[in-house]
Amino acid sequence: MSEPCDEGSAGTALQPRGSPPLPERAWSRPWQDVAAELGVDPQVGLDEAEVGRRRRQYGVNRLRQAKRRSPWRILLDQFTSLVVLLLVVAAGVSFLFQEWVEGFAIAVVIVINGAIGFLTEIRAARSMEALQRMGHVTARVRREGKTEDVPAECLVPGDLALVEAGDIVTADLRIVQASRLQADESALTGESLPVAKTPDPVAEGAPLAERSSMLYKGTAITRGTAEGVVVASGMATELGLISQLVETTEETTTPLERRLDQLGQKLVGVTLAIAVAVIVSGVVAGKDLLLMVETGIALAVATIPEGLPIVATAALARGMLRMARRQALVTRLSAVETLGATNVIFTDKTGTLTENRMTVAAFSLPSGDIQVSAPGDEAESAFWRDGRPVSPGDDPVLRQALEVGVLCTSAPDDLAEPYGREVIIADPLERALLIAGAKGGLHRRSLLASLPEVHEEAFDPGTNMMATYHRQAGGGATGVQEYRVMVKGAPESVLAACSRVLADDGEGELSDADRRRWLARNEEMAAFGLRVIGLAVKNAASVEERPYEGLTFVGLVGLLDPPRRQVPDAIAQCTAAGIRVVMVTGDQAITARNVAESVGLVEAEAGEQGAGPASSSAPAARVILGSEIRDPAELSDEEKERFRRAMLFARVTPKQKLDLIALHQESGAVVAMTGDGVNDAPALKKADIGIAMGLRGTQVAREAADMVLKDDAFETILAAVEQGRVIFANIRRFVVYLLSCNVAEVLTVSLAVLADAPLPLLPLQILFLNLVTDVFPALALGVGEGEPGIMRLPPRDPKEPLLTNRHWLEIALYGLLITAAVLGALAIALGPLGLGTEQAVTVSFLTLAFAQLWHVFNLRSARSGALRNEVTRNPYVWGALALCVLLLLAAARVPLLASVLRVVDPGADGWLLVLGMSLIPLAAGQIAKGFQARRLG
Questions:
Q1: Which of 35, 692, 786, 814 is deepest in the core (most CB within 10 A)?
Q2: DSSP state, 193?
Q3: Which residues are catalytic?
C-alpha cells in the first residue's frame, strides 16, 4: 500500500491554476474524451509525481470538517431569550438595592432553567463529521501501470479507480469499463433500487439519478466490477456539493422560540411602566420612598413570570420522554412544540410510506392473472385468482414461473429455507422472487438438488436478460443429457427471444399478435407502479447453446415496494387534523404516483383500470418532476401557488428540496421534512423540523435532524404531532395561568396604592407567591396529557402568537376577579372584622395565594366538562395543590418563615374569610366557561 498522502485542505470545487480542468458533464461524453481531457491513459494511470502535483493543486479527497458547537456555546444559548434576560436584570436590580433574598431566589430560577435546558439539549448538528467519516476507507487505483491500494483521501482527478461489489465509491468516477455493474445510490438520489451502470454516455440533461455512466462518492457497489477515471474529488464531488448545502443552510428558529421572544418583548415595556408608575404613585400618596422602591421592584419582578422558563423547559422535556415512548427521539428541545404547529409534512416514499422491501405483487400468466398476498397477510393462501386461492401444485404455469424466479438468480445456493427470515443478498428483486417461491413451497436449496446449476449467463445491460443452465435428471427422449434454461429480464427483451408460450395444456406458438398483447399487458402493469420482469424457459442439449433463442414464454411478474399498512389511516388522520402531506422523492414519477394512490394520499385518476372515481383535486395531484422546479426567486406567483398545491414530486434533487421548503415557509407554513439519505441532510436542516429515519437512515441525516424515528414509521410522526399540539396547549395554558396570577398581584398593589390603603402584599410575599405557589401548579399544567380530540382540530395559524387577543382578555378578566376577591377580603378584614393591619395584610396575602391555587381549575378547555376534564384528570395538579397548601400553612404557622414573610395568625374569622373570598374567582370562572361552551355548540 502507498504511504499516506500529504495533509492538505479538502478538495475544492474551484479550479486550481495549472491543473487539467475538471471535465464538465462527463456523463454525456465518451469516456475516451474525458480521460484525454484529464491527461491520463486508463491502461497506465498517473505517475506518482503527477499525483503529488494534482494533490497540491486540488487538495486531498475529503470533505471539510464541520465546526463543532461547543458545550459552552450550548450553555450560553440557554440564557439568550428575552424572558431569561429580564430575570437577569431583575436579579441585578435586587442585589443593587441589597434585596439579597429576592436576588438570590431569582438567580436560582435562572440557574435551574439553564441546567435543565443544557442537559436536555447538549447536542449539535454533526452532519459534516458524519460525511467526513465516509472518506476513511481505502481505494484501489492503477498508477504507473500497477494496481495498488491507497487511502481514499489520496485520490486525485485523473486517477484510474477499480471497484467491485461491496465497495464504497470514494470519488466521482466516469465509468471506463463495467461488468454486470449495479450501484445503490439511495443515500444520494433517493432511488429505491440498485441502478445498472454502463460506460455508455447519457443525455447531457439527464438528472443525477439517471446518469448511468457515472459512479458517485458515498454510494455503494452492489454487483459487478468496474474501472473509472476520477473526475471530481473532495468538495467538488456531488456529495461535497450537498455538504456545502448543509454548511450554508441556516437552522430556523422554532415557532415556540419566536413566540416566547415576542412575549418577552411585550413584558419589557410593561415591566418598566408598572415599576415607575407604582413608585411615583406611592411617593405622591406620601408613602415611604424606600418601601415604594422595594414594592416597585417586587411588582416588576411579579410582572415577569419567573416560572415561565422552567415550566416551558420542563413541559418540553416531558414531551420528549412521551415521544421517546412512541419511538420518536427528539434531539432539539424546542422542536418538540414545533410539531404541534406543523401544517405541511414533506415525506419521502421508500421506507416511510412503504416497507422498503421489494415484494412480488402479481403474476400475469397465460393461465390467468394471479395476485400474491402482501407480507404478513394471514390469508390461507399466498396466491389468488378471481378471489379464489390457487396452489402451485394445481397450476403448472404458476409453478414454472416460481421455479424460474427461484433458480434464475445470482443468489448463493445455501439460503435459509423459511421465507419469513431475511434473505441476505444484494439484489432486492431477486430476494423478492426467492420469497415468492418459498411461499409456494419452492425453495432454492431443494430445487437445486434436482436441477443443479451448471452455468450462469450473467445479466447483460445490452440484452437486459440473464440465464442459468440446470442439469435435468436422466436424459431426454434420445437418451442425450438435456439442460433446463431459466431466463428472466426486461419483458420486451424476453418476448423478442420467445417463439412459444406455455399454457395449462402444454406449449403453443407465440404469434406476433400474442407478443403485442403481452407487451400491452406489460405497460398496464407498469402503469400501476409495478416493476415488471419477463420469465421464460427452454430445454437445451448443451450449455454451449445460446440462451436467448427459441425460448418459451412463461409470463410476467410484477413487483413493488408495498405500502405500510398503518399509513393510509395515518394520512387520513393528518387530513382530518388539517395537515397536508406532500411526497417528495428521488424515485420515478410513475412509482411515486402508484404509492400515493395506494396509501390514500391522492385518488386514482379516472379511467384507470381498477381505480376509483377521479378526485376533484386531480389537477393538484399531478406528479411534478424536479426538472420543473426553479429557484423560488424566478417563479411567478401562479407557479409558486401551483407548487404549493402540489402533493407529488419525483426525481427531486437536494437543492430542489430546499427550494420547495423555502417556498412553503415563504407563505407562512410550518414544514416538517422526513429523510434518510445524505441527499436529505440540507432539507432536514432547513425545515422547521427535520425528521430522520432511525433504522435505515444515514448518520448524516440523523444528525442534521431535530427528530429521529426509531421505527421509520409515518404513523409515529402523527403521534409526535399530537404530542406537539398537547405541549403547545399546555404551554399556553400555564402562561395564561402565570400571567393572570401576576396581573392580579400588580393590580392588587397598584389599586391599593391609588386608594391610599395599606399595601395588601409585601415585597417578599410577592416573591414567595411567584416562586412557590405560582410555579408548582403551572408546572403541573405544563406536563398534562391534554384534552381528547385535539387531533380533530385544525392546526394553529402559523402567524398566531402564543397569546391571542382572547387569551389576553382572559388574563385581564381572571386578574380582575382575583384582584376584586383580594381587595374585598382586605376591606372586610379592616372593616367588619376589625382586624389589625398586619392581620388584614395576612388575610389579603393568603386570599391571593389560595385564589391562585383554585384558579388552576379555570384553565380547562371549554369543550370539556366541569368535573371531568384535562385538569382534574391530571394527577400532577392535585400533587401541586397539596404541596402549595402545605407551604402556605407553613408560611402562616412556622415561626421563622412567618417572620421572614411578616405573616401573622389571622384568627378563625380570618381563615374563614380567606377560604370564602378565594373561591369567588373559581366560581365566576366556571360560570364563564359554561357560557363559552354554549357558544362553541
A1: 692
A2: S
A3: 348
